[in-house]
Structures are given as C-alpha cells and as structure tokens.
Amino acid sequence: MAELFDDIFKESKLFADREVLSPHYIPHDLLFRDRQIQEIAKYLTPSLKGERGRNIFVYGKTGTGKTSCIKNVLDRIKGLPISKAMVSYINCRIYNSRYRVLHKIVSDYLPIYAKRGYGIVDIYEKIINWIEEDGKILIVVLDEIDVVKDLDDLIYTLTRANSDIKSGGITIVGVSNKVSFKDELDPRSLSTLYENELVFPPYNSNELASILKDRVDKGFKKDKIEPAAVSLAAALAAKESGDARLALKIISKAGELAEERGADMVMASHVTEAAKYAEEDIAYELINTLPEHQRLIVYAIALLSIQGSRYKRLSDGGDSYLFSGDIYDKYVAVSNSLQKEPKSSRWYRKYISDLDMQGIITSYESGKGIRGHTKLIKLAYTPEKIKSTIEKALYKEMGVDKEIAGSQ
To answer: What is the pLDDT of residue 272?
Structure first.
C-alpha cells in the first residue's frame, strides 16, 4: 500500500515552491501597488498616533491586490513602537454578521469573555470599556465587508461607538469588490461613515506579466517554463479582468498539467488548456462570495436554464437567452420559499448589471418586437454546476431543504 503515496512524496521535476504560486501567498514586495500602500499607510497614520482618524474603504475587483496591500501594511504596523493602536483583522466571509464581528474582536483581545454566551449589548460594552481603559484606538479591518448580512447594524454600531467612547476610538477599514455596495446602506449608517476611499485598478497585461515572472522565478525550477507561456497567461488574465489571482491559477494549473503528462517544460499549449479550468474555478469562487440576493438571482437563472421558462426562450446560434421578467419572477419565488424579502425590481435591475459586469452572466437589450422592450440574459457558465455550487453553500448557511426553492 505504501506505493500508493509514492507520487505524493516524489520530488517535482517542474515546481520549486508551489506555495509561491498560490493566490493566498503574500510577497514581501507587492509590484505596482506602491501608491496604494502609501495611501493606506497615510490614512491610518492618525489612528497609529492615537487619534481618531477617518474610516477607510478600499475597493477593486477580485485579484487587484486589495487584501495583499492591507495585510502588507498591517505587517509593517506590527513592527512599530506603538502602544495604543490595536488591529483586529476580520474575514467577513467567515464572520458575516454584527454579532460575529464583535465576538471576533472580543476573542482577539478579551478572550476571557469570548465563551460565556454574552449578547451583543454585553460584548459591545466590554469592547467600549476596554478601549476607554487607556484611550486605545481600535482599527477594525473588515475584509469583504459587503457580505455581512446585517451590514447596516454593524456599520451603525461601530461608527456610533465613537460617540459612546470618552477616550480613544474605533477606525473602520472596509475592503470590498463592489464600489457600489454602500448604495444599499441605510441613510443613518451612511451619515456616520466619514470615510476616505481608495480604488484599486485592474492590472494590465504588462503588469500581470511582471507579477507572474516574479512568482514563476521562485515557484518553478530554472528553465522549466517557456517565456511565451508566462506572457500568454498574463494576456489571458488581462483580457478577462486584470485579475492576478486568475493569472496565478492559470500558470499553476498549467504546471500541473505539464507534470501529469511527463513534460520537461511548461508550454503555451498547457496554459491554453489550463485557462479553461482556472476561469471556471474563479467564477465559482466569485459566485459563492456574492451578496445574498445577487446569489439568489444567479440561482434563479440556473434553475430556469435547467427547467425552462414559462415562455419560449430566444435562441441565438445555439445559445438560449432568458427573459429578464421571467428571471425576476423566479427570483421572487425562490426568495419567498427561503423566507427572504425579495428586493424591488429596481434593485434587481441593478444587480443584473453588476452580474453582467463581473462576467457571471451575459445580457443584451432585445429591442422592440420581443415582448416589448426587454433584457435577454444567459449564464456564462454551466447552469447545473452553478446550481450545485450555490446549493452547497446556500442551504448549508440557511439550514433548509434544497427542494423547497428548486421546486418553485
């Protein structure tokens, strides 16, 4: 049986350090992000001095280096001779509610209270008292802030805390893939933010090529990947979205394909094949990080694509498009079955535009003559796999029977 694991422990002919090629690896030097790092540091300077600073919101598409830059700055803060500025980094995909965020802060700094079943008010008061002890400034970094379910309540609680704190304060650093996420906030929450904003642009193909070359030089053995393969991976990622994570996934998968086939070098042909796998992986990761109602809309589109619409779909060269109105009706039915209040048609249209921009769906206006003037929509990926992907996450979170929505 031992030979079953021979391939696992055998030294790779191509890879030197696979971890360097991971999207989660954070290099010490972040190429093409010096300005953004300097801006983040500048905005945090008042808080590091023990003063109440403005909140910071960092935006940009997936793979533009937002989290890496934030973590880079946080690592540098650890080495500073400061005593009153404390940092709590919170991944909102895990801590996705006001209670969980506050509980994470308590766990970071007041662990004695973390396991006693305190409610929100008690936890809030513990944090306030802890800050006031010596006038601390608590920097709360909320990565993927837009996935917090009760975001209005969280923002209001953290910003209003500064009114209750007599000495010290709280600074929020919000990180989001969506520039428009604040549009959904209640006016009372918006009015308390008082924030700086920083937008991360996508990388262009030359920048991605430089980033990839830097990782490839460390991740692959010498002369084990042809330069054309690196250039192609960068160009493919730049064409799609300027996503460095996508570029890294492509090049890493290309290496795996080359190794599986006993090749002596990673070639451009391996990259072409790897891109198909990597783009799909990124898409499904993105779908699982969508805000709740956008994900329900994608789920409704997947269900209609599989089950069929009440009306005949429009076919164009073998591709079938769904009518926007049918999708909205299905989305409402799915939401109701899950006891979720569906968003208005105005918000639905906005979400459709966001999904189109992110490449999860494709759409176009029908023009006159097809049920009046309507939008025609189809998924950019396999509906069956999208349905399965969403169900695994959605119903695990909600603890409901997946047949409820699927039968609507």
So the answer is: 94
Q: Which option is the CATH number for 34-199: 2.40.33.20, 3.40.50.300, 3.40.50.150, 3.90.25.10?
A: 3.40.50.300
Fold of the 2-22+203-287 domain: Helicase, Ruva Protein; domain 3 (1.10.8)
**To which residue do tokens 């600074």 refer?**
171
Single out the residue of 309, 291, 295, 297 nearest to residue 392, CA to CA.
Answer: 295
Which CATH code is given to the segment(s) 290-406?
A: 1.10.10.10
Stretches where the chain sits below pLDDT 50 are 311-312, 316-318, 401-408
**Residues facing residue 220 across a β-bridge:** 15
Give the DSSP per-residue string, 258-271: HHHTT-SSB-HHHH
CA distance 288 to 62: 13
Strand ranges in 156-295 using DSSP code E only, listed in sequence order: 169-176, 195-199
